[in-house]
């Protein structure tokens, strides 16, 4: 019995896929890279983006055609809007919410696949279901990088986003489970660990007084780093500017293992647009948070998310976003043209910024980003950085790596045993979005 899983969307879906794989392999299924060779085939969907949903329909159409000539069981989970779920019930054999994953073996047994793995957990509320979901041990996709979900759902209800309708309200994972998973990964030699949630810095707010806050959770993880002889970096994504307090930045500054890289989505540099987006923060509030980061962690890199062409966005409002990008000097910005998301509040609003204008704004912002990111990268020249080697580079004879601040660094080497290791590289050239360097032996480092 072989299985194949298609994962769409964000890092949370990537993390969820590791638990889905664990359950399937616990049932005796074996992974295959070729979906045409699979007896069980599934997809983790992303209703947040229409293109991802279109891909689901394309996939299931092909899979259902195959059923005429072979035994095949199909399933779907992930971020699914109620309207999409109704349609998928007619197309897939099994449709389930991710929090119901522990019950997946029972669902499969209806198709003649029996397993002792299933858990009898009937009539659970969503929070209880998430608790059982998190107890499923993941089958990590990497031997040196790992994702740890710490929270599910979102209470912010940004008008452009469907996540509260696909994943529900915020539920925090028990902190001891998170801490234990971090310890286990560190002991196994993992070098990069990312805490995941739709709004990670609201962690614990749904259990106020009975659970750690986000800064307290980071403090406990920081202590693990202090007690370990291993070098590792802990990241988190994504925080919300409204909940990003000074206490979080102070803890990051305090512990070496807490990576000096902050992903802080601004979405727009105009207050009126932010209000329409229901972001619940102003540019002034955002500026204050960035000032704290620059004060306490001056070496930190700053990443963000920006939407151009949101419903009703004027040229003046777009120019305010350009000003913000230059002011905050981002190292990376994930810039997207606004498109209607079924299920989001703004879906019924006019999408009144012409596509040509959206594309022009995307290009202008990308050029602005290249300028500020390139300036930072050029300042890296001549300096030595510790980097995590992640893979071979598309440039032959080179390896690709990242600094603690997630700046991409390539260097000449064909020694693939370095992949998954932290090494030192001296920067010799720089472009707008990456740098190049040469491997430095430990004995060459100047004290």
UniProtKB/TrEMBL annotation:
Residues 378-441 form the TRAM domain. InterPro entries: Elp3/MiaA/NifB-like_rSAM, Methylthiotransferase, Methylthiotransferase_CS, Methylthiotransferase_N, Methylthiotransferase_N_sf, rSAM, rSAM_horseshoe, rSAM_sf. SUPFAM superfamilies: Radical SAM enzymes (SSF102114). Residues 140-375 form the Radical SAM core domain. It comes from the Bacteria. Pfam families: Radical_SAM (PF04055), TRAM (PF01938), UPF0004 (PF00919). Transmembrane segments: none annotated. Its EC number is 2.8.4.3. Keywords: 4Fe-4S, Iron, Iron-sulfur, Metal-binding, S-adenosyl-L-methionine, Transferase. CDD domains: Radical_SAM. GO terms for molecular function: tRNA-2-methylthio-N(6)-dimethylallyladenosine(37) synthase activity. Its cofactor is [4Fe-4S] cluster. Residues 1-113 form the MTTase N-terminal domain. Catalyzes the methylthiolation of N6-(dimethylallyl)adenosine (i(6)A), leading to the formation of 2-methylthio-N6-(dimethylallyl)adenosine (ms(2)i(6)A) at position 37 in tRNAs that read codons beginning with uridine. NCBIfam families: miaB-methiolase, MiaB/RimO family radical SAM methylthiotransferase. This is tRNA-2-methylthio-N(6)-dimethylallyladenosine synthase.
